[in-house]
Amino acid sequence: MRGYGGVLVGSLLLALVSGLTGPAFLLVAYIAWAEGADPVWVVAAAAVGLVGTAMIPVSAVKAARKRFPRITSGDRASERGEAYGPDSFVVWAPRSGPGPLDARLVRADVLEASFVRYDPDTEATYTTYVGDNDPSEVKPTIGLRLRVHDNGGREGAEFGVFEITEEVRVPPLCLSAVTAGRLAVLVADAPLAATDPPGRRPVPQISVLWPRSLLLAGTRTCRVIGLDGELTDVTRRSRRQLEQMRVSWSVGGVVMDGDVIDLRRLDPDTAARYAALAHGPGEERAPVTAPGEEARRLVEFLPGPGGAFGSVGRRWSRRGGRLVRARFLRMCGTTTFQAHGPRLDTLIRVGPADGVPEFDAERRVTVPMNYLALLHHTRDVVLRVSPNGRSYDVDWPRTNLLAGVTPAKVVTPDGRELTLPVRSEALWPLMNLLAGRAVSVPGAVLDLRRPRMRGVADDVMEIVRATGADVDAARLP
Question: How many helices (H) and strands (E) does the chain have?
Fold first, then answer.
């Protein structure tokens, strides 16, 4: 990834080329003055030229800031914003369609997922769909084999538990629901065709409710404040979540304040129906991901940077640059997209570093799809902190390695290859060690046999052994 300076220079050159009107007016004003033209015209042309020329660096800085994911003091969130719990994560994804009138809201388990196609617009750096934050062009098509549980949505359920195979376009923000393996779907009878014989048996038709699937999968957290004021976390309580969705569906939707549903703000009948769910049978939390995630893993086929231990600038490291871990608290879709991911309005909680207290920042950034597919596992993001501590740059290669997009490997000095567990605890201290020693590793393989790695080899092996990551070793030739 190019640094901010390179992006700024590129933006300045582009702004200069596209903003030649200002310098041209200055040239015209000079020629007119030299030839003794009317002073009024000379001053007017010079004024237009000065304004146009002054806008060149301004537009360059704005363009660079848009393209480069940098957080500064101007991005700090207002303290009057919503309160988030230590594990809260809110996703505002585009709302799904209404579905058939007689449809039943049920759970579907994703047994298999396969990448089919993705054909984005690659001609423009940014593509904005005016008035449409859910365009089909930016959704990858995924093949799904589902086990649908149509046996408890409401009276009239006809199909019971059945399997179905579908190709669906998945909103980028909702990819993690597929990987986690739990979807909220509507089931109804497929409409009759003119060629169908009389007495045809009903055929199921499904529609995926993507935002609700994020809740059911546990990617988006959910807490409920009861009528007595008690706060209950119902994240990954799949049965209760599904019943809550049915209540919400029947009344046309229930407003969530961040990740909180406050029953005291609902109408009495709806609040009573929600409250009754709290007295149902006890339920254990569902696992973060359903068994068999390997059959649903899509990150290798989705666009986005591969994971890496990361590049390090020697000057940045020697002057006190460092890495800090942050966490996404909120993601909200916009109408702008890039080929590798949607442009999202995010709220990021930057962790404390060197005595600096944590703070929340609001920043619009492009989030790669391969990271979005793993949001149910992690919302952590790695930031590069400037030596003066005034700016924080989002580092997607390090973030994706930490998230498990790419498997990390360490080749020991004696030639053994260690494959670190996905999202291993060893990754973060290894990244900090390499950054502090100004050692760049632009890939996901840390080869300690290389001469430039001799100074860190012992420390790397100590970290690997201390975290129990010295596993899956194979001796290389």
Answer: 12, 20
pLDDT in tens, 390-442: 889 999 999 999 999 999 999 999 999 999 999 999 999 999 999 999 999 99
Task: Kindly tell me the burial class for residue 388, based on how many C-beta atoms sit within 10 Å of its own C-beta (0-12, 13-18, 19 or more).
Answer: exposed
CB 113 within 8 Å of CB 299: no
Q: What region does 304 belong to: left with phi over 0, alpha with psi -120 to 50, or beta?
A: left
Residue 248 has pLDDT above 80, yes or no: yes
Question: Parallel, antiparallel, or unpaired: how do β-strands 322-338 and 90-92 relate?
Answer: parallel
Average of pLDDT values for 172-180?
97
Give CA–CA dist 95/147, Å, rounded.
23
User: Containing H/E element for 328?
Assistant: strand 322-338
Task: From 137, 5, 136, 121, select the one nearest 67 (Cα to Cα).
Answer: 5
Query: For residue 348, what is the enclosing H or E element?
Result: strand 341-350
Structure-block tokens of residue 406: 């790419």
- Is residue 239's pLDDT more than 70? yes
pTM of the model: 0.84
Q: Give the relative orientation of helices 396-403 and 427-436 as an angle to the nearest 10 degrees.
A: 150
- Unique residue bearing structure tokens 């975290």: 467
Strand partners of residue 72: 391
What's the rounded Cα separation, in Å, for the pair 350 and 83? 15
**Highest averaged pLDDT of the listed ranges 18-32, 87-101, 276-290:** 276-290
pLDDT digits (tens, 9 = 90+) for 465-477: 987 765 555 554 4
How much is the pLDDT for 196?
A: 66
Give the residue carrying structure tokens 């237009």: 48
DSSP three-state, residue 57: helix
- Average pLDDT of the chain to the nearest whole number: 85
DSSP character string of 175-189:
HHHHHHTEEEEEEEE
How many alpha carbons lie under 13 Å from residue 379 in its C-beta half-sphere?
23
Q: Which of 445, 427, 447, 429 lies closest to 378 in space, CA to CA?
A: 427
> Distance (Å, rounded) from C-alpha 433 to C-alpha 437?
6
Residue in the block written with tokens 């498997």: 407
Dihedral (Cα; 189, 195, 196, 199), 10-degree rounding: 120
For residue 305, pLDDT beyond 80: yes
Q: How far apart are CA 272 and CA 391, in angstroms?
A: 48
